[in-house]
């Protein structure tokens, strides 16, 4: 499968993930984290990548960062990747690749998702059961963003504008940020973050995605997959598609359905059988749709062979 082109927009934050090959550990000792940190800080300063949040798990990393240039992200990951793999292989007496492949990236709608994404990143160790609270994990940005910690793990972070708007000063911002962690992340947001990052879609609302698509050469969100669902009406032996059919097909379908349903015992909503002049009502019966037995409503013009007023062939309820 061909690689999808990435969206790289200077000034727009991105969620970045790099995993170890076959999900193997990429950090085996405290010194490994420190070496990786120093390499990342050096490369991000050199190539113009402002990092707002991070977490380094044992077998993958998350960054929330804003590129200054078109190639900021790619140059940082190339530089850090090469340097860290050489170090790791030498120290741990191994050979071969360390990374799973290309890093994953998704452009982020700052106003809608940035603070949620920061929480998602910094809560990774809690979700993984490694610690009870985010402040207990040393290799993340939580202690800086929520507690104001300084030092080699924090001084190089750049606050994003959405974070600074949480308060008029540093103390108020930290208080506001900690308050966000009082509630769990909405499951729908969790799913959206994971899907977008895994598939390279834009993480944001419809307007944001349309704007991103206008800048790129590929969709910024799912357009739906698969063929229309087929429904097999067992009682009548008819196979139809769920979408509204064209008028000619509708006419033929209505005529055939009226004939086939005679004697099946199906009744319309008024209790009238097909043989007793049922009109444009819904006839109910067992249907199999997508491999599941369901009840289907057949909306059809059983009193009009021309198909007038035929809304749908099959509407699954």
Number of domains: 2
Strand sequence of the main sheet, in spatial order? 6-5-7-8-9
With helices defined by DSSP (H or I, 4 residues minimum), what is the helix count?
10
Q: Topology as H/E string?
A: EHEEHEHHHHHHHEEHEEE
Per CATH, the architecture of the largest domain is: 2-Layer Sandwich
Any idea what the CATH superfamily of the largest domain is called? Transposase IS200-like
Ends: how far apart? 37 Å
Largest sheet features: 5 strands, antiparallel
| Multimerization state | single chain
Count the E strands: 9
> What's the overall average pLDDT, rounded?
76
Poorly predicted runs of 5 or more residues = 225-259, 265-317
SS class = alpha+beta
Task: Indicate the radius of gyration in whole angstroms.
Answer: 28 Å
Beta-strand portion reads 15-25%
CATH C-level name of the largest domain: Alpha Beta
Share of residues in helices = 25-40%
CATH domain topology of the largest domain: Alpha-Beta Plaits
Description:
With 317 residues, this protein is of the alpha+beta class. It folds into two domains: 14-215, 2-Layer Sandwich (Alpha-Beta Plaits), CATH 3.30.70.1290; 230-316, no CATH class. The chain has helices spanning 30-47, 72-91, 110-122, 124-127, 142-147, 161-164, 170-180, 187-199, 206-215, 247-260, and strands at 14-19, 49-56, 60-67, 104-107, 230-233, 238-241, 282-289, 292-299, 315-316. The model is unreliable at 225-259 and 265-317 (pLDDT under 50).
